[in-house]
What we know:
The complex is a heterodimer. Chain A has helices at residues 5-17, 23-35, 38-42, 56-61, 72-86, 89-105, 136-143, 147-161, 168-178, 181-185, 191-219, and strands spanning 44-46, 49-51. Chain A is globular. In chain A, a hairpin with a 2-residue loop joins strand 1 and strand 2 (49-51). The model of chain A has no long low-confidence stretch (mean pLDDT 96). Chain A has a two-stranded antiparallel ribbon with strand order 1-2. Chain A has one domain (5-219). By secondary structure, chain A is mostly helical. By secondary structure, chain B is mainly alpha-helical. Helices cover 70% and strands 0% of the residues of chain B. Chain B is built from two helices and no strands. In chain B, helix 1 crosses helix 2. Chain B is flat. The mean pLDDT of chain B is 92. The interface between A and B is medium-sized, with 30 and 24 residues.
Amino acid sequence: MSWAAHDLEPYAIQKHAGLKLAFVPLLIGSYSPDMMTKWFVYGIHLGPWDLKAHDPAQFHRGWPGFGFTHSFIYGLAVGLIIWKVFGSKLWGVSFIIGQFAHAITDTGDTVGTMLLFPWTFHFHLNAWAYAGQTGRFTDAAAYFSGLGCMWDAVWIVYGLYSWRVLTSAYFDNYIFRADAFWPWLNRVVPRGALLTVYRAAFFYGTSRWIAWTVWAHVIHHYPYDLSWGGPHWVPAAHP
Amino acid sequence: MRLRLSFDVPDRRDLRVFAGYCLAAAVYIAIGVTWVDFLFSFWVGLAYLIVTAWAVPTLVRRVL
């Protein structure tokens, strides 16, 4: 799994898309595969109950489980529903591209994704350890000690290199113009606040990346292991 | 023929906006490192950013 790439990739895609995509569904698509599942992967306390998947990796990425949310067919199905039900081809296509980016990025870890579901083969590059089953803190420590966080860093650097995508002028000329959602929201929300909302995912991804890195390596001194498939001090899950 | 490498450089206004976001990020990171639950929610991050990068500066501009 990735901790910041899904926040940052939409800005990189947006840079090349211009007016051809809408940013909001692109971002929703990028978040969508984990929206319903992440809380159950890590587990939550709800009053007297502890709710957690018996096999988090299987639940998150496998079949039986919710692994189909990380497949192309899921993105296409939801995108098609958005297109036909809500009548917006732009939103449908943008959602699909965002969801595809998420599903492809998550092939980088040791569990990978069933990109071609219903074929249940897991495409996985094994570049960094999937450690969601260890709980969110150990997972954070492991992720920010391996190649996963370096992959996130690539998107941060690319985002800063493409800084114009985050400017007020770009927002006015592309983001606002491409999608009727923004003028609609602008009837009740001032333009300055909308610009801040547009920048939020980049801010969130980048700030969180720095905060977790500080937490893992300055506060807790977890060792970096940038070898392929690392860090090897955490038990990685496999399909 | 001489080739020149050119960079798209932000102007003073862009840098001032960027500095404001960096300041907001520094505070967000400090809170997050101290209390990590703060880092988990996108909605918390969004609300924080709207307050620090839009609401407060807007209020300050109106007052001054």
